[in-house]
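README: folding subset

This subset contains proteins for which both the sequence and a predicted structure token string are available. Records are stored as plain text. Below is the entry for GNAT family N-acetyltransferase (150 residues), shown exactly as it appears on disk.
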Amino acid sequence: MPHVREATLDDIPQLCDLLTILFTQEADFQPDSAKQSQGLRQIIEHPEVGRILVLHDGSTVIGMVNLLFTISTALGTRVAILEDMIVHPDWRGGGAGSTLLKEAIALAQASGCSRITLLSDRLNSSAIRFYQRHGFTLSDMVPLRLLFPE
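--- output ---
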């Protein structure tokens, strides 16, 4: 039976494997294990920035979700950005994603957050329905991005 816990530095190679699956599915991102490893390490080593939860079956990480923390001036409180939620394809459809998302929601609330915001690919209707089943609603806000050259 899979369990959820916070990620450790030892999980980074398996988390990078999951991010490769995720970033292969998403149009806006490309897998790069070195960059993903660097980002994961920064979050794990600085829990005030965010937290990474892993869903594991024994020593195998089968899913992950990343929560980043910031302050909303609109709400005057701490809020979370849900990033990088992925469940290995072999484990989808059996409730693993729901287990992971419910733990992420509980962690955000316990961390004093009053809102969680996430981005999903517009064309990924199954992901949008999944989040809506868990209480998320579509926003009228449109994401814009400015990338700086490396």
